[in-house]
């Protein structure tokens, strides 16, 4: 998955930075003041690069998730347009926990019809 790839990249990056930090720490006793300051700057740059990479990967993951949700929503909306040509509903509501719909009569629940129709469309797409 994309999340696993992101985690793997960050772990790899972190491991390489930790290795470099250990190298710098081992040399620290024999470093001049200028070398120590350079090592400190390098350490700060490594932290900044890691944080920048982490932010970029998270943004990429969020964009991919948003794109996927948009695609799913569009498929549902397109299917419902076709479905409703035959059924003639005035409204088709989405229900989610927390949605301000306190009661609904299951007589009007078209969820199973919608899922069946979407699955049939998906099977046709895959062929």
Description:
The longest helix is centred in the middle third of the chain and has 55 residues, at 33-87. 76% of the residues lie in helices and 0% in strands. With 127 residues, it is mainly alpha-helical. 0% of the residues are buried. The model has no long low-confidence stretch (mean pLDDT 88). The chain has helices spanning 2-27, 33-87, 111-126. The protein is built from three helices and no strands. The protein has one domain (2-126).
Core attributes:
127 residues, mainly alpha, 3 helices, 76% helix, rod-shaped
Task: Give a quick summary of the entry.
The protein has 127 residues and is mainly α.
The largest sheet is: none
Please state the structural category. mainly alpha
Low-confidence stretches: none
Strand content of the residues, in percent?
A: under 5%
Secondary-structure blueprint:
Layout: H1 2-27, H2 33-87, H3 111-126
């Amino acid at each position: 998955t994309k999340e696993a790839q992101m985690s793997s990249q960050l772990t790899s990056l972190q491991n390489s930075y930790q290795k470099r930090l250990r190298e710098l720490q081992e040399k620290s006793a024999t470093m001049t003041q200028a070398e120590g300051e350079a090592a400190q700057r390098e350490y700060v740059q490594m932290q900044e690069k890691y944080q920048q990479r982490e932010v970029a990967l998270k943004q990429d993951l969020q964009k991919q998730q948003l794109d996927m949700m948009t695609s799913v929503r569009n498929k549902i909306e397109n299917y419902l347009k076709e479905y409703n040509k035959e059924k003639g509903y005035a409204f088709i509501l989405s229900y989610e926990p927390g949605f301000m719909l306190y009661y609904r009569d299951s007589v009007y629940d078209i969820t199973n019809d919608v899922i069946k129709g979407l699955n049939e469309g998906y099977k046709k797409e895959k062929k």
